[in-house]
């Protein structure tokens, strides 16, 4: 079963056709190979597979034809040499770091991280002898001063979850590479449609494919992208022995998601811009966070490294937790959820959900307060969403 020849395609075409492998049945849609093992024509072939002398499949914990199609397609989108599908976004984050870090190494990470990512770098890695330094991601001097000879990794997300602060990818990569460290970027909020960290110098990019790549709230998945030697050797060896494998069925769902991602993200970004502009004119909304607006403090950086402002919006309501809850509870189209990147517009109160494990002081330092609300913009009509938000504002 051979992959189709890669053409000089535009992105939308790539996301429909790249990496397709057709069986002898000539199916149009990619096949789902829901098998765990594989049959060999002879004992000699089995031996060659396990030695790595034959390119066929061995076990679906290692690789699977449907998963391979997803990996090839997302790698082509990202402009990466290779990719490895994972069981979830957090499996991608943890494996991307644990696969090459060891006791005695040092990692520098931005303070503004999703709660589980912060746990990985500040709690889990130190248990195994990897020291962590947290810095203000927007402050290049802090990144520079945190570097040590034993620094092996820098990790950050941009835009950040939930208040959409930015990290200068290119500048941080230059700092890291002076000491030979690898830069790992969580690109979930920007999506691969709007930001390409590898082209800006990053070594590794991670996604929760659960978000905009699936885009319809159907399944879990993650992916790690980077150089072929890192993906095929360092990461693959770690994964095949630890097992956070991507389900073939979920890989198939993600393949279907990639086919429509350009259309979905374009619509979400257009609506997000309209919503941010509307919220900025409301007296009961004290602050709006959207990189696509000129009042975002890092708007120039957003223009430099992002194709647009993105599909996420954050805001602060006048007041505190009670007012934020009244705002959220008054909505009907926006659904209360800690997820994001769905076809349905979602609303989150980060201080009591996604970032609740942080201390109040740590949340404040990250710009997350009881008045902070995060919006993930879906595919509904922009006017309907704005009408829904008006109900929430009236309840504040």
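^ Assign residues to that structure.
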């Amino acid at each position: 079963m051979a992959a189709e020849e890669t053409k000089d395609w535009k992105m939308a075409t790539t996301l429909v056709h790249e990496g397709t492998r057709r069986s002898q049945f000539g199916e149009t849609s990619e096949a789902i190979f829901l098998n765990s093992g594989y049959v060999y024509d002879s004992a000699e072939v089995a031996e060659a597979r396990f030695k790595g002398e034959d390119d066929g499949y061995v076990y679906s914990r290692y690789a699977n034809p449907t998963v391979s199609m997803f990996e090839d397609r997302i790698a082509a989108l990202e402009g990466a040499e290779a990719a490895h599908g994972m069981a979830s976004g957090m499996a991608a984050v943890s494996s991307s770091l644990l696969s090459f870090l060891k006791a005695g190494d040092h990692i520098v990470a931005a303070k503004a991280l999703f709660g589980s990512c912060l746990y990985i770098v500040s709690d889990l890695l130190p248990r195994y002898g990897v020291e962590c330094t947290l810095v203000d991601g927007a402050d290049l001097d802090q990144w520079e001063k945190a570097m040590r000879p034993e620094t092996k990794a820098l990790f950050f997300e941009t835009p950040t979850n939930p208040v959409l602060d930015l990290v200068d990818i290119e500048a941080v990569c230059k700092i890291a590479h002076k000491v030979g460290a690898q830069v790992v970027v969580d690109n979930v909020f920007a999506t691969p449609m709007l930001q390409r960290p590898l082209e800006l110098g990053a070594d590794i990019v991670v996604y929760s494919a659960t978000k905009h790549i699936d885009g319809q709230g159907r399944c879990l998945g993650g992916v790690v992208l980077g150089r072929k030697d890192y993906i095929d050797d360092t990461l693959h060896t770690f994964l095949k022995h630890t097992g956070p494998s991507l389900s073939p069925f979920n890989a198939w769902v993600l393949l279907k998601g990639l086919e429509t991602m350009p259309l979905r993200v374009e619509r979400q970004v257009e609506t997000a811009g309209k919503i941010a502009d509307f919220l900025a004119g409301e007296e009961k909304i004290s602050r709006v966070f959207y990189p696509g607006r000129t009042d975002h403090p890092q708007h120039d950086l957003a223009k430099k490294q992002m194709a647009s402002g993105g599909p996420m919006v954050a805001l602060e309501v006048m007041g505190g937790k009670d007012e934020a809850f009244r705002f959220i509870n008054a909505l009907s189209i926006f659904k209360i959820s800690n997820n994001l990147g769905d076809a349905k517009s979602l609303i989150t109160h980060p201080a009591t959900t996604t970032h609740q494990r942080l201390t109040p002081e740590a949340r404040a330092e990250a710009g997350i307060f009881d008045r902070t609300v995060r919006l993930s913009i879906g595919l509904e009509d922009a006017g309907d969403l704005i009408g829904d938000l008006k109900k929430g504002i009236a309840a504040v």
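Residues 316 and 372 are 5 Å apart (CA to CA).
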